[in-house]
Amino acid sequence: MSAAAGAVLDTRNGQAARREHILDAAEACFVRNGFHRTTMQDLAREASMSPGNIYRYFDSKEAVVLGLAERDRERGAVLVEAMERAGDKRAVLMGVLARFFFEITREAAILRLDVWAEASRNPAIGAMVERGDEEGRTWLIAMFDAIKTSPECDPAALFDAVAPLMKGIIVSRALAPDYDAGPAVAQLQAMIDAGLSGALPLPHLDLETGR
Amino acid sequence: MSAAAGAVLDTRNGQAARREHILDAAEACFVRNGFHRTTMQDLAREASMSPGNIYRYFDSKEAVVLGLAERDRERGAVLVEAMERAGDKRAVLMGVLARFFFEITREAAILRLDVWAEASRNPAIGAMVERGDEEGRTWLIAMFDAIKTSPECDPAALFDAVAPLMKGIIVSRALAPDYDAGPAVAQLQAMIDAGLSGALPLPHLDLETGR
Questions:
Q1: pLDDT digits 0-9 by tens, A89-115
Q2: For a designed S-S bond to B126, which of A34, A155, B119, B145 qualifies (C-beta 3.0 to 4.6 A apart)?
Q3: Contact A171/B172, CB-based, under 8 Å?
Q4: What Pfam families does its record include (chains A, B) (predicted)?
Q5: Chain B positions in Cβ-Cβ contact with residue A32 (cut-off 8 Å)
Q6: What is the DSSP letter of B116?
Q7: What is the predicted ipTM?
C-alpha cells in the first residue's frame, strides 16, 4: 500500500473510531438524563469534544439516535452472519437468543424504551424502528422455517406468539436493576422449541370467556 | 342533606372533576410531545386553566405523572372488584385480560413506555412503577392459585412466564397504529390456561445449546 493510501485509511479508521466514541458518549447521556433532556452540548462534554466537532459527524440529536440504532442493527447482522456460517442452525439460534438477552445492559434496554416511545412522535425514528422490526421478523421467520421439525409448524404464527415476549424481556430488563433474564429466556427457548414441532401457538380460547 | 353539606359535596365533586380534567389534558400533552417536552404551561393551555390554578391541584409535573399512575391503579382496582364478586373467577379473569389489552389505547401504551423509561431516572416514579407491578403480581398469583386445575401448577412460576408477554403486548400496541392485539391476547389466555393445568412454564432447555 502506498503511504498516501495508508494515510487515507488511517483517516477513515480515525473517523469511524471518532463516530463510535460519540455514539458511546450519547448512549451514556441518554440513559442518564433521557433523550429529551440531553443537549448536543451535554454530548460534547461527555465525549470531551467541541460541539462544532460533534456536528461534523452528526447534524442533530436525532441523527445520533439513528446512528445508535444503525449500530445496533450492524451488531445484530454480525451475530446473524456467525449463525449462518454455523452447522447446527438451531443450536446457534438458541445460543444467540440467550446471549442477546443476557448481555443486553440495563442502559441499552432503557434507551430502547425511550426510542420506542419516541417512534410514535418522530417519523424518522418511527421508520427506523419499523425497519428494524421488519428485518428481525423476516429473518426469524425464515430461520424458523429452515429448522422446523414438523410440517405443523407455522413460522409466521410462531413469530407472532413469541415477539411480544422478546419485547417484554427488554422492558423487564430496563425496570429492575437486579433483573435475572434466565427464566424468561429459558421460557422463550422452550416456546420456540415447542413451536418448531407445531405445538405453538396454542389453540385459541374464546376471547371473552377463556374457554 | 343540608344545603351546606350539599355545597361541600358539590365542591368535592367539582374538585375531583377538575383533577380528572387536568389528568386528561396531561395525558394528551404527554402523548403528543413526550413527558420531557411538556411544561406546566402547555398543560394549563391544554386544560384551558391558568397555570396557578393547575398548581392548586398538582405541585409539579412529576405529581401529575404520579396522579395518572394512581388513576390507572384505581381503574384496575374497579376491574378486580368486579371480578371478585363474580362466580366464575376463571372466565372473569380471561375476560378482564382481554378487555384490558383490547381497550388500552395507543396513547396510553405510549405513555406507559415513557413512564417505564423514566422509572430508572426518577426514584418517585420508579417506586410507583415497582409498587404497581408488585400489586399486580401479588393479585395475579393469588388468582392463579385460586383457580388452578392441577396441583402441578406453580402460580409464581406461571406469573414469571407470562409477565413479559403482557409487557410486550403494551410495547406492540404503542409501536403500531393498526396493531391487532387479538393473536397475542389469545396466546396469553392459552398460556395461562396451560399453566393452570401445570403444563407451563415449559421445562427449560440448556440455555447455551437449546437442547
A1: 888 888 888 888 988 889 889 989 988
A2: B119
A3: no
A4: TetR_C_6, TetR_N
A5: 121
A6: H
A7: 0.80
